[in-house]
């Protein structure tokens, strides 16, 4: 049976006095897209760089395609996109991609890949003159040019404009269809929600939640509406089925959680009528991944 | 998802290219980078040729008997080796480390030994161009090399061992210092060794007390050794070769222990 793309158990990584990764355990399946989400400094890059073989863990075990991350045989099977840099500033765009391609036995044609990522017009431009988004796309191209089984993408869409972001998402989708395992880090909830089969939320070096985007956001839906602030929710709660919750947050914004269905809707609107208020902007929605993320990792800036 | 692009088959087909092909690709890239870099060309070609032509034609230095051009060609050849293997390589590698290039290459199938082999190949390639230009300019200025086939073999051996020694020293600097510090230090060392290593100013002009120390410098061993075979037609210059070999072994051993890839 195939080993998972990545299997990490109790990983710990310290830099001097600070603990960047603190007993992290995660598993990324073969042929799946795994998104590692977390605030800045959560330990995402440290974790990925240990998987890429750039750093040694202080303790814990890491297996990439069933092997030790430092195993030389992995280099040809794993594609890597660093968070930034990695290309000589004077090197021309196409020259770099062709160079990287020549390290592999069955590389993708550089021309088609450049074309695909919208870099054909910049083929002869030195790396330092490319825009930030073009540099990112070149790094993405270099990560996949060797036709790897597994790709690590560290914040692949940071600094991309919407067109380039979609081009990147399309490519990740195609990698998945082609059977390539992808592990990516991101701050963008929409990216994780859209691309990932499996989402791992990490904070302060540990996994705080994981699952499919659907299980993380929950089957539970919410009813939201706006009305004048300060309505008494006691009576409404009494009328709602047991297990429901109602809150006002922020002022004038009401959220009702529970078995959201026709009955609950009828109860709420009846209560509104009794209170003599018109519910504005009444809607039923799922929690977003961003709600989950902020709930788990807090709102304060770090 | 967009339309499937038949030219872009992303199905995994992993595998490393043959070692020789990887090294050749990387060596080609390194060679192009060196020849494209204006500052490097100034260091590797313009300065040596200007020194050779200038000091050969104008009686600015006392070479202690003999023809000036016969004294200068071996010294400038040694300078060319130092400029490429030490100064140029230290600066380029220091900045590659700073820009994450060494790290990124570490994630490809090109091994570290493959990368070092590619760098050495590129350095030797540039040295061959330098030597050809210096020899042609020297001959045009009336240089008459002495010695037999054995002397030329000795000269080639000195250049190879000298390249190893200077590469070791350059990589030692690039792998431990910050890129800016490497840039400054590599240029400073280049200037000091140019002045104090017998390249254009004969060591005999220095005070007796410092001469034994200066003679142990790698640049002095290379200039002295090349001069003994090319100007005096001596056989294998064992002492300079031994001095260079010690520098090479010590510096490369330190490199393998201290080099930081990022």
TrEMBL record, chain A:
Membrane topology: Peripheral membrane protein
Alphabetically ordered keywords of this record: Antibiotic resistance, ATP-binding, Cell membrane, Membrane, Nucleotide-binding, Translocase, Transport
Segments forming domain ABC transporter: 6-229
Any one GO molecular-function label of the UniProt entry: ATP hydrolysis activity
Signal peptide: none
Gene3D superfamilies named in the record: P-loop containing nucleotide triphosphate hydrolases
GO process annotations (BP): response to antibiotic
SMART domains: AAA
Cellular-component GO terms for this entry: plasma membrane
Location within or outside the cell: Cell membrane
Protein name as annotated: ABC transporter
């Amino acid at each position: 049976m195939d080993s998972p793309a990545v299997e990490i158990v109790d990983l710990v990584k310290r830099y001097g006095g600070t603990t960047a990764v603190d007993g992290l355990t995660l598993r990324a399946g073969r042929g799946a897209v795994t998104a590692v989400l977390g605030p800045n400094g959560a330990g995402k890059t440290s974790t990925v760089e240990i998987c890429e073989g750039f750093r040694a863990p202080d303790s814990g075990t890491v297996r990439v395609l069933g092997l030790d991350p430092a195993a030389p045989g992995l280099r040809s099977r794993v594609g890597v996109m660093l968070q930034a840099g990695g290309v000589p500033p004077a090197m021309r765009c196409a020259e770099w991609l062709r160079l990287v391609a020549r390290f592999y036995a069955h590389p993708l044609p550089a021309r088609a890949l450049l074309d695909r990522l919208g870099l054909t017009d910049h083929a002869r431009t030195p790396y330092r003159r490319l825009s930030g988004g073009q540099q990112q796309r070149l790094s993405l191209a270099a990560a996949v040019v060797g036709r790897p089984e597994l790709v690590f993408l560290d914040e692949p869409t940071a600094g991309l404009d919407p067109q380039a972001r979609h081009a990147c998402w399309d490519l990740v989708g195609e990698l998945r269809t082609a059977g390539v395992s992808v592990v990516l880090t991101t701050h963008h909830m929409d990216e994780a929600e859209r691309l990932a089969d499996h989402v791992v939320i990490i904070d302060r070096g540990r996994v705080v939640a994981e699952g499919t985007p659907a299980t993380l956001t929950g089957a539970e839906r919410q009813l939201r509406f706006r009305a004048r602030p300060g309505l008494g929710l006691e009576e409404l709660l009494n009328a709602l089925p047991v297990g429901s919750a109602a809150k006002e947050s922020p002022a004038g914004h009401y959220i009702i959680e529970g078995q959201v269905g026709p009955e609950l809707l009828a109860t709420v609107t009846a209560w509104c009528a009794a209170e003599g208020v018109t519910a504005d902007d009444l809607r039923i929605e799922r929690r977003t991944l961003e709600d989950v993320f902020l709930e788990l990792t807090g709102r304060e800036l770090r | 998802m967009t339309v499937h692009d038949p030219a872009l088959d992303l199905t995994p087909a992993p595998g490393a290219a043959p070692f020789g092909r990887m090294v050749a690709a990387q060596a080609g890239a390194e060679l192009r980078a060196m020849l494209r870099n204006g500052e490097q060309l100034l260091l590797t070609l313009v300065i040596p040729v200007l020194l050779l032509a200038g000091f050969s034609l104008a009686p600015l230095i006392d070479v202690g008997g003999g023809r000036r051009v016969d004294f200068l060609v071996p010294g400038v050849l040694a300078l060319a080796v130092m400029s490429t293997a030490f100064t140029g390589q230290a600066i380029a590698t220091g900045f590659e480390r700073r820009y994450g290039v060494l790290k990124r290459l570490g994630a490809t199938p090109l091994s570290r030994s493959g990368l070092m082999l590619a760098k050495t190949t590129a350095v030797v390639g540039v040295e061959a161009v330098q030597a050809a230009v210096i020899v042609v300019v020297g001959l045009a200025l009336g240089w008459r090399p002495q010695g037999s086939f054995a002397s030329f073999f000795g000269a080639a051996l000195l250049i190879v061992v000298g390249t190893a020694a200077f590469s070791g020293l350059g990589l030692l600097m690039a792998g431990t210092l910050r890129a800016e510090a490497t840039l400054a230090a590599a240029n400073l060392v280049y200037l000091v060794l140019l002045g104090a290593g017998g390249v254009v100013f004969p060591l005999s002009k220095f005070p007796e007390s410092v001469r034994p120390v200066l003679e142990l410098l790698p640049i002095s061993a290379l200039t002295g050794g090349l001069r003994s075979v090319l100007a005096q037609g001596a056989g294998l210059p064992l002492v300079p070769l031994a001095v260079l070999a010690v520098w090479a072994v010590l510096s490369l051993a330190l490199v393998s222990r201290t080099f930081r890839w990022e």
